[in-house]
Design brief:
This protein has helices at residues 11-24, 28-40, 46-56. The protein is mainly α. Helix 1 (11-24) crosses helix 2. The radius of gyration is 25 Å and the shape is elongated.
Length: 77
């Protein structure tokens, strides 16, 4: 895991972080990790993002024909 040091953090900001951490039942360090992770991680996965794009474009209809032919079993002899 990586470590980050934040210098010159205003005292009022530090107090606010401590108060927020207490409200959420976390340490100040855990609260800061939580805030940073939520700020930089995507809100949804790739599939959901692609579905959102498709919906924004009015949807996409894909038509596939199934291959109904019977597949011969593999012969390993």
């Amino acid at each position: 895991m990586s470590s980050v040091t934040i210098r010159k953090l205003p005292e009022a900001t530090h107090r606010a972080l401590k108060a927020r951490a207490t409200q959420h039942g976390r340490s100040t360090e855990a609260e800061i990790r939580h805030i940073l992770e939520n700020a930089v991680r995507p809100k949804s996965g790739m599939g959901a993002a692609l579905a959102d794009i498709g919906r924004s474009l009015g949807g996409v209809e894909l038509e596939f024909e199934r291959d109904a032919s019977v597949v011969a079993p593999a012969d390993f002899t």
